[in-house]
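Intended use. Records like the one below are meant for learning the mapping from a protein sequence to its folded structure. Do not use them to infer anything beyond what is encoded.
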Amino acid sequence: MSGSGSGAAAARDGAATPPRLVAVPGGGNGRPGQRPVRVVVFLGVADDVRSRVAAALLAHRSKGRVRAVSASQVTVDPDPAVAASLAELGVDLGLVTSQPPSAALLDAAELVVVMGYDEHDLGGGRRTEDWCIDDPRNKDAAAVRCIRDAIDRRVRRLLIRMGVALPTRPH
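Structure written out for the chain above:
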């Protein structure tokens, strides 16, 4: 038996458990009182399914320290399997609505995360990331959970990079 087989299994098992987070005291700016609003916009390209999932997870994980916005030109009804997979984590997808993207919204964002492939350049000096994630609509429950977990891992890493949360060691 080769070592690569056991390494693949360990990597697969490790991928199933995203890093745990600890909130950074002071919300990231170190000063008491009113904090500036930090905004992350998740821009849905084809529709708002992935952007709503990401915004719901960021809002849940940041505990109010970051404003998560879902933006898309096309809004669709939530897929029941997607809503159910988020409910397993204590996240209510129904609390997240999408709004049409606008220059003002994108300019106010600390980061714009493009959910899917988009050939248009957002330009304007905006900080952007592309998260090429599969669309969870019309997938079976196991596939939806896998996609949800992939988005959740990216959200957790984003919060760490923003200085809003610190990773913790697994127990």
